[in-house]
Structures are given as C-alpha cells and as structure tokens.
Specification:
Distance between the termini: 64 Å
Radius of gyration: 24 Å
Order of helices and strands: HHHEHHHHHHEHEHHEEEEEHHHHHHEHEH
Number of strands: 10
Strand order of the largest sheet: 1-3
Length: 521
C-alpha cells in the first residue's frame, strides 16, 4: 500500500520486555532489585526451606520420601535428585537477576547525573545477592560455573575452581559493603544492610578456612554502630522461642532474613509447619539432637550423675523445650473444651516428639505465611567469630569466651558460662569442641547443621542411624523412653561431602560432561 520509510515502522517490540526497554527509570531499577529478593524466597514446590535441610542431618528425620530429604539422609541421592537441582536452579536464578541489574542499571540514570544514593544502594543489594548465593553454591557443589554478566538462556559455562569463585564472592561482598546503609527506615525494613554483607563475607571466609580474615570481618560486625552510636546488633532480650515467631520479627538479632507478609505470598513456612508438624508429623526431631543438650549444670548428660534417662527432659538447657515439643508438654493450643492442650505422642509421631521452634500452635490458617526466615543471626556472628579466631591460632581468650557466653546466657537460657564449667586455659581442640556444641544447640532447624558437619569433616561420625523414642511407649503416663531406629543412614566420605552437579545441567551443558561430575556420582 505504501513504501516503508524510516519513520513509519516502530521497530521496538511493544509486547515483550527487553533489558533495553525495561531499564529506563529508577522505578524500574527498584523493581528489578525487588525481583532478586523475590527469587530468594523458598521454592514451595520443593519445600526448600532451611528447616528441611535439618532433615538431611542428625538433627531430624522426615519419613516422607516425596518430600525429597530422606534420600540425602540415607546417602542414596544421585545427580537426578531434586534437592541438588532445586538449589542449583534457585541460586543461578538469583545470580542471573543480579547480573542483569548490575549490567543495565546505568541506563536508568542520565550519564551526567551526580552520584545517586539509591543507585548505589541498589547495586549494593545486587552485589550482596550474587556473592551470598555463589558462596552457597561452592559450599554444596565445590567448583561451579562463574557467570557475572547477563547471558543468553542457551549459554552454558564450564566449572571454575572454587578459589576463583571465592575471590569473586569476596569482591562482590566488598562492593556491597561500601554501598549499603547500616540500617533503614521503617518502610525498607528487611532490605540488605552493610552488616548483612559483612556477616556474609565473614561466613564465606570461615567456611573456606580463611580463619584470620574471617575473624577480622566478623569482629567488625560485632562492633558495628548505628548512627546514634549504639550497637547495631545484639542478642534478643526476649525468649529464645519468640525469636522465631512473627510478632517478634525484625528484632535486634536478625541480620539477614527472608521476609514474608501475610496475604502477600501463598504457601510459605506456615503451610510447612501446619501440614508437616500438626497434621502429618513428618518433621521429627531425633534423639541424637536431644542428647546434645547439656543439663542445667552445663554438663553433657553422660557426665551429670543426676541425669535420669527415664526423665530425660528434666533440668536441661532451656533451648531444648523451646525448640522441641516433648511428651506431655503443653502445645500452646487449647483443646476442644478450651483447656490447655497436652502433647501425647501417637504412632504417627515416629520419634515421639514434634517441632516447637518456628511453630505458632494457635495458627490455623494454612498457605498464608507471616514467618520471616532468619538466615544469619547475631548469635551466628558471635559463634562464627569465636570459631574463626580460635582456628586462626591467634586469639584473645576473654573475647572468645565473651562471644560464646553471650549466646549461652541470653535471658531465657542462662546456661553456665564457659569458664564456670569447662574452665580456663582450654586447648585449641577443646575450645573448638565447645563452640561446635554451642552451634548444635543454638541453631537446630535453621539449616546450618548440614554445612557444619561437612566443613568440620565429621559427617561420617554423626550420620549414623536416626534414633527416636518409641511413640507408643512415650505416650504412656508416665512416658517410657525406649529408643528405636527410625531410619537407616549412611555417609560416604569419598562422595557425600559434595552434592552432585544436577543431571539436567550435565545434559544441557556441553561444557560440563559426565567426566566433570563430582566424584562418586
């Protein structure tokens, strides 16, 4: 009908978004960063919450095979298993979104514009996510593809040495630290802070045995101050159990967490807890974890002559009953007559116990989570600092003891100080065991145990058969605590310290063939 003149056809697509036509404003840059936060949420289809990772360890057992954790606890997982793929896919989605933001954010600002504080902050948030989730990848897989720029969906890269990736992680987190604020106003609570980036850097260094550097960075987190000069982080003064309930979220101990809002995101942790604890009993604490808690004297149960194996929960570290619902304890939910409900095990409880930590037993609404999920707490920073300092071989005993005691003596716990039980002048090995014990009883069901037992190279010692209390014996009045094997477990030290590269990645990536798979898979 007419000739095609240059100004006649609109060449830009109007029905799809490209980086060039999306990154055109500060509002869109903010949307892009919010998209990274969204990708960091747990994968509901895989039940990929931190609590699930404890089911793969000596802390907990999940009887349901279709929830994917059992095979890893049993050592029967393969490159086709769901969890390796879920973590790989989720982390690279986050990294991809961070790469896109960092590559195109300049288009959102005029080149002659002065330094913009929001632009700096958004870049810092993206650098944090890329560094944090690459650190998670090398923790589980070792060498991984290192991608730091936007790539076509068909791009596939080779595995890169762990140390090279670690250096990129440190660079990214350093870039985040200099760009991020110490704290936010109320409208931005939950966004990544300077302290979160510093803590993530310290954690990455510790997990990769760069102990002196880790101790230095983590000490800086401990000394971080607000604008008014008060400490940025502290041990939460409320109850240990309250740390994990929605009404106490965003407290002074939380450094990095995944934020959820009621009515804004379907499923979420409330669904997992109600379904897998209240209805199905598929989250089952193990006797191995129960035995790890000391008595109130600060002694292991086999060293306290007053410990009674038929009254095993009497005079124990208060964190035990604040984390685990034991037979004949109050659930916190009224029964049908309005009276306080008492937990009596049934045959479906498997280990005779339930999870108390995280759970609000008055909550009846499923699929509408309001639980934030802490990934780094100040207690973690204190214990990581203590570990890194001692492992470095150069440390101040008073400072290390103070860090451990701050965790032991939170107001709702008040376990004895290290110097009052274990004593002064401990050897490096003795002090490391104190710290390892403290991590075990401070962080159950928070997903840290799986990395701890691997980086400490103790998995083959602790990943023995999963033990529970016979629920039919434990329901008797008074309860009888007979121990039973609930799951046969194995750990192959030649193979299982790393997860396999997902088979889907090997099948689609010509740069990673079967010969590049982790040993034993």
């Amino acid at each position: 009908m007419c000739s095609c003149q240059d100004d006649f056809l609109v060449r830009e697509p109007i029905d799809t978004l490209t980086p060039e036509n999306f990154f055109v404003s500060e509002d869109n840059a903010l949307l892009a960063v919010n998209g990274i936060y969204s990708a960091a949420k747990a994968l509901n289809s895989a039940r990929e919450y931190t609590i699930d990772y404890d089911c793969m360890t000596d802390n907990m057992y999940n009887y349901s095979r279709y929830q994917h954790t059992q095979e890893i606890g049993q050592g029967s997982h393969s490159s086709a298993s769901y969890y390796p793929f879920a973590k790989w896919d989720k982390n690279y989605t986050i990294i991809s979104r961070a790469n896109m933001l960092l590559a195109y954010i300049d288009q959102c600002y005029a080149s002659e514009q002065a330094v913009n504080n929001l632009k700096e902050r958004l870049e810092g948030e993206a650098y944090f996510f890329r560094g944090y989730y690459y650190a998670d990848l090398i923790d589980f897989f070792g060498d991984v593809p290192l991608i730091t720029e936007p790539v076509d969906v068909s791009y596939r890269g080779p595995r890169v040495a762990r140390e090279t990736v670690l250096q990129q992680i440190i660079n990214d987190l350093d870039s985040a630290i200099v760009r991020l604020p110490v704290e936010y106003d109320a409208a931005n609570i939950g966004r990544i802070t300077k302290g979160a980036a510093m803590a993530a850097k310290g954690k990455a260094l510790l997990y990769n045995k760069r102990f002196a550097e880790a101790a230095e960075v983590l000490k800086q987190v401990m000394e971080l101050k607000k604008e008014d000069g008060s400490p940025r982080y502290a041990i939460f003064e409320g109850g240990y159990r309250e740390l994990f309930l929605p009404q106490y979220e965003n407290n002074c101990e939380v450094i990095y967490d995944i934020q959820y809002m009621k009515g804004k995101y379907t499923e979420g942790l409330s669904n997992q807890l109600y379904t897998f604890v209240e209805q199905w009993n598929s989250y089952c604490p193990l006797v191995q974890l129960v035995d790890a808690y000391y008595t109130t004297k600060g002694l292991p149960i086999d060293e306290d002559p007053d410990y009674d194996p038929q009254n095993p929960f009497y005079n124990r570290d208060p964190r035990l009953e604040q984390s685990i619902m034991v037979p004949y304890s109050l659930t916190g939910r009224p029964d049908n007559n309005g009276n306080p409900k008492v937990f009596k095990p049934s045959s479906s409880n498997h280990t005779g116990m339930k999870i108390r930590k995280w759970n609000d037993y008055t909550e009846r609404e499923k699929n509408n989570s309001e639980h934030n999920i802490p990934l780094i707490r100040y207690a973690d920073v204190l214990l990581m600092y203590a570990e890194a300092a001692v492992e470095s071989g150069s440390y101040n005993e008073d400072e290390v003891y103070a860090a451990i005691n701050a965790v032991r003596q939170r107001p709702s716990v008040m376990m004895p100080k290290v110097e009052d039980v274990e004593g002064r002048g401990l050897s490096k090995e003795e002090l490391i065991e104190v710290i390892r014990h403290e991590r075990r009883v401070e962080f159950p069901f928070e997903g840290t145990r799986i990395s701890d037992i691997r980086r400490w190279r103790i998995a083959e010692e602790v990943m023995t058969d999963a033990i529970g209390f016979d629920p039919m014996e434990a329901k008797k009045d008074p309860p009888v605590y007979s121990r039973v094997v609930v799951d046969r477990r194995t750990f192959d030290p030649a193979r299982d310290y790393l997860w396999p590269i997902p088979q889907k990645e090997i099948d689609s990536n010509p740069a990673i063939g079967p010969e590049n798979q982790n040993p034993g898979y």
